Amino acid sequence: MKSGSKLERILQAGHFAFTGEVGPPRGCNVQALKEKISHLKGHVDAANVTDNQTAVVRLSSWAASLICLQEGVEPNFQMVCRDRNRLAMQADILGASAHGIRNMLCLSGDHQVFGDHPQAKGVFDIDSIQLLAMVKGMRDDSAFQSGGGIDEAPKMFIGAAANPFAEPFEWRIHRLAKKISAGADFIQTQCVYNMDKAREWVKQANDLGLTEKASLLMGITPMKSVGMARYMQSKVPGMEVPEAIIRRLREAGKQNVAEEGIKIACEQIQEFKEMPGVAGIHLMAIEWEHRVPEIAERAGMLPRPEV
Amino acid sequence: MIVADKKPIEEIVEEIKDHERILILGCNECVTVCEAGGKKEVEILASALRMYFLNQGREKNIEELTLERQCDSEYVEEIRGVSDQYDALVSLACGVGVQFTAEHYPGLPIYPGVNTCFLGATEHRGLWTERCQACGQCILARTGGICPVSRCAKRIMNGPCGGSSNGKCEINPDLACAWQLIVDRLDSLGRLEEYETLSPVKDWSADRAGGPRKVEREDVQS
Predict the structure, then answer these.
(1) How do A280-283 and A17-22 pair as beta strands?
(2) Residues facing B3 on adjacent strands
(3) Selection from A47, A43, A113, A55 nearest residue A81 by Cα
(4) pLDDT averaged per 10 residues, chain A (length 307)
(5) From 3.40.640.10, 1.10.3110.10, 3.20.20.220, 3.40.50.720, which CATH number describes the A6-298 domain?
(6) Contacts of A162 in chain B (CB under 8 A)
(7) Domain presence at residue B55
(8) Which residues of B touch A163 (CB under 8 A)?
(9) Both B143 and B108 in a single domain?
């Protein structure tokens, strides 16, 4: 075992993993955070805790991860390269591990111009691939990035993000390979809507033997409305929403559009369950945490296995 | 070259409004090429300032001069004989020239007339774009001759990030994704396999992170 996290144990036992996501509040509203977490409890194996997502200041991801842990949901502590240099990153990794956080996801982070402090200086001391290698070095070699020794190494199951839809498509898979060779134990993808491209990408990952080296969790976000679908199609960098999805949502009618969105998500989850090389689902029900139990049930993900 | 852009005239007016005898000092190097602080821009700024103060009913003595460089003592010393005729100086050189001139004339207030922007190239007249961040440790040999430090919005050493779309950067659809350019260039050089190599963590101590820098060459010192 690398960290002994529940997510690692689930994957190692060969179960199809199911992770969720929690966005910390824009303030100290712990009650609101606990409410979101309560919907995930028992319905997911772990919950990603986002780190100043979309470059907007929120309650810090390690602090929210700690609350998540206390509330009985295993956190997947997200860390972006935008806001911390290598000193702060390593300090937070040690702190998170010391508090019992056992999974982390290493990300570049959305550029600060998109957020609520567009005049901020982006740090980007190291990139997400170098972060993966740094965490692995800390865990496996008890060594800081500088090479100096660590007095009791942190225990982390290390995750990376992948976007099968960003350009250049033919080179995306090689960047995934780089992330895995740098140290990623598991991969969570960007939200998938274009299933043709996702199939092709998973096949490429299988062909390169990547899915044997790291566990692949495919990202799913149910659409709540046609407006949301249009927004994701045109405004979210690196997101690909086929017209067919938008047509299906529109044809469902205003009353049933959310239901149709959940139906599409469940169909996708079904297909991924059968797809060789896919080890689980990462469900990002953005501001829709209360629907997670229903989605998990309908997608046949319950009950979650005990490991 | 060092690329600069003109400051708004209102900002310069605010800087010099309490002075009476002002020298507008241009530079014949980079800022001339990027049309921000050469002889021509000195003339235009001086005329505009004279006009502005005349309209305010305040006649000021505003004179013009352009030096070969403002980053070399030899040229900066050329105004030694006339410096006491002025009670302020507006330098249209880059930030280097402004400071170097100030160092030579401790009693003379000096104001910047341009914003120094970056190290870049002239794509065509009127369009200058960044190419180098003077990080002090060039990695272009590893990246197909295209610099991710100056041209990637996140300075990613192992790109592209998830925000690259149709060859463009997530922060601006007019901005090329540096890593798309790198991949394309490695491809055209027949060296795509180099993309597989993990780029190590960068030593930023040679960059500004290490404090103000200097290059000292004993072999050329006399």
Answers:
(1) parallel
(2) B118
(3) A55
(4) 98 98 97 98 98 97 98 98 98 98 97 96 98 98 98 98 85 92 98 96 97 98 96 86 96 95 97 98 94 96 96
(5) 3.20.20.220
(6) 162
(7) yes
(8) 162
(9) no
Q: How many domains does chain B contain in total?
A: 2
Could you report the per-residue pLDDT of B158-178, keeping only the tens digit for each? 999 988 888 999 999 999 999
Q: Greatest CA separation found in chain B?
A: 70
**Cα–Cα distance between A82 and B79 in angstroms, integer?**
47
Report pLDDT for B56. 95
The answer to whether the complex's ipTM is over 0.90 is: yes
Is the CB of residue A177 less than 8 Å away from at least one CB of chain B? yes
**Which residue of chain B has the CA closest to A108?**
B161
Angle, vertex CA B114, rays to CA B109 and CA B116, nearest 5: 110
For residues A47 and A73, is the Cβ–Cβ distance under 8 A?
A: yes
Assess whether B138 and B187 both reside in one domain.
yes
Residue A68, amino acid? C
Q: Is residue B123 part of a domain?
A: no
Cα separations in angstroms, B56 against B10, B17, B64, B88: 13, 11, 21, 19
Q: Which two tokens stand for residue B19?
A: 């002075």
**Of the partner residues A125, A174, A238, the one whose CB lies closest to the CB of residue B204:** A125
Cα–Cα distance measured from residue A41 to residue A240, given in angstroms and rounded to the nearest whole number: 30
Q: What is the pTM of this model?
A: 0.95
Supply angle C-alpha A184, A90, A153, rounded to 5.
75
* Residue B144 and residue B97 share a domain: no
